[in-house]
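Sharing a chain and its predicted structure for anyone who wants a worked example. Both blocks are below, sequence first, tokens second.
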Amino acid sequence: MRHFILSALSAVCALTGLAAAASAAPAYFIQDNDYLGPGGSDIQSIIPLLNRPGVELLGATVTMGDDWENAESAHIRRFLEIAHQTQVPVADGATLPLVNSVAATRLREQQFGIVPWKGAWGGTGSIAHVPATQPPLGDMPDGRPHLAADPLPAALFLIRAVHAHPHQVTIVATGPLTNLALAIRLDPTFAETARQLVFMGGLLDSSMMSVTGNANYASDFNMITDPEAAHITLTAPWPSITCVGNVSNDIMMTHDLMDRIDSHHTPVTDYLKRFYAALPLWDELTSAIAVDPTLVTKSVTAYMDIDTRDGMDYGHAHVWPDSTAPKGMGLRKVKIVQSVDTTRFLNAFVTQAQNVMGTH
């Protein structure tokens, strides 16, 4: 009997150990972004995904948007070098939207008014002399990286990673959704094989926001740059979708916040201080919510799609309740974040920025 009891206890302990090991398995993430740099919201957005217990960043995939793709790739690879996080692969992706173009945007501005932020296609200035395709890489004040990009294109990198960890990978999309749309078109099972999509964009009631606030912050750049990709992505069969839109305009990078980060000197905090940008923490908040959804204090669920018709609403988000949502259009329900625990988010971001240095 004693032998039987000991054997049973051993079996229970073994099972408990297996369960503990399973529960300790890391949460997998890929960040897809238009890494305008050096510094600023795009580069800083990777900080909540690094050196975090239980979090494994499988890679960063790069898409054209706030800057041309080749410059963005170089800036994020350089940041990973500075942070000693060179184990994170960077996969180069789309250099242009699926359909939208410089010429079409130039014409659209003549017809429907100025786009306040055009990213690679002129920033806050003119689009008049912007080239139609990606130019060679220019000067880099942060220095050119030695870390090479992954040999796989971003869309294939995303597909491979999701199938390597079925139903475990969160895609954090904080730029135009071109790479995700390409992955969906290449592999119809891609979205349903992921764990979830958390994206920055989908601003609502932005017309009034552009009048009463900063028109740049209300432009929903990630959606209007590639509306067709946004439509393809948001109508794909993700297990769940979280939209970090309007709420992301409400939390700013300030000098006081940067001083808090820089109170503990590392190569990363020195870099952040040097390239300080007084912008909303758009992408940083999106990454933080993806890792810790308990930061969300209020949300609403609705059907969402992006307008792809030519006109003044091109790239604008629309939402519907169950009762009025279009039928047979493949629309998906989206969790729209309305408020967050700002204090906890900022405190955590300061700590993460100060402790992001790796050992690689």
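Comments welcome. Residues 1-23 have pLDDT under 50 and may be disordered.
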